[in-house]
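Translate sequence into structure tokens.
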Amino acid sequence: MNLVITKENIPAALKWILICALTGVFSGTASAFFLVSLEWATNYRESNNWIIWLLPIGGLVIGLSYHYWGKSVVKGNNLLLEEYENPQNIIPLKMAPLVLFGTLITHLFGGSAGREGTAVQMGGAISAQFTRFFKLDNSDRKTIVILGISAGFASIFGTPLAGALFALELVYFSKISFRSIPLSFLTAYIAYYTVEIWNVKHTHYSIPLVPEMSLTILLWIFIVSILFGLAAMLFSRSTHLWGTLFSKTIVYPPLRPFVGGIILATAFFFIGTEKYAGLGVPVIVDAFSTSAAPYDFLMKILFTGFTLGAGFKGGEVTPLFFVGATLGSALSIVVPLPIALLAGMGFVAVFSGATHTPIACTVMGMELFGLESGMFIGLTCIIAYFFSGSVGIYKDQIVKGAKYHLYEKFKRKGTDLL
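Result follows.
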């Protein structure tokens, strides 16, 4: 598709506009249903704490469903990245209901997980179905993957600009067709407004006080941003570590979330709180006004890495928000910056480091917190990105550029620090 509309390419342009509209509407509707269902599951669990003891049964159900019906889609977001890099097969539509069901079960019984992975996978599975109908080739299918990611992310978080940029930046170091750029934005906005039409609300955050920039503040930004980057690295490697341990020690996949569920339920019982179960949105909101405990971010990393590594379903992004916001909030005790600003900086910076998407995260921060904090958010996201290591939450994401070459230089010298 040529970006310049002429009489000859009007049919192609209309085709892609229709694909964007269908992807946005269906993905947005799926996300709206997911958000409502997720709120119900969370409220039910919080009102019936005993249900967390059913987490092993929920894990077994998830494990069995993927073992018998979902082997082709068990890779989740990594499957989308694989298909973008090397299109082989149309992503099965069953990815959407399976990940939706698995995520709701995870949250209902208290697993520590997010929601972005679910929305992105639903968006990717939905958009892929237009391949046959519109007779798309491999180049077109790459665009389809971007549209699905864009629609899912924008609709689940209510951030259309960040959603479009996230999809593009996630696959930036693969070949991107120029047509994907405007189409990604169009799809993101359609998905976003679809959720709005369904009258489903997103969580709102605010940073009421933003100080003037100074050299001293710049120094503090640099210091806390390094800590955010290291937290992102710890989160990513923790998730991969638990996944590897479970796959090596438990041969039969359905038993992994069953055993993991037993351990998780027991752990929540002994620590005497379910603060680290589910999304943890109330804790994130509180972090903007009240200093979080200095160990909150570490506990969320531990429980989320264990939950996802065991085979439960969900996403990593909201837990990353939790980790960043609580770490920033805890740092407010020693760092002379407003608590809400530190929480907001951490909120997006840890996400930036773990996904290698500093531009999308900067835009997301401004969409969520306002333009006034843009300079703080942007600097923090970029610095955290460089200090988060070469391994992110998505194993199949291609990481190149200045950051990649920096770590390759370390490896050649025999120093694999990050």
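Note: The chain has two domains: 10-197, 215-412.
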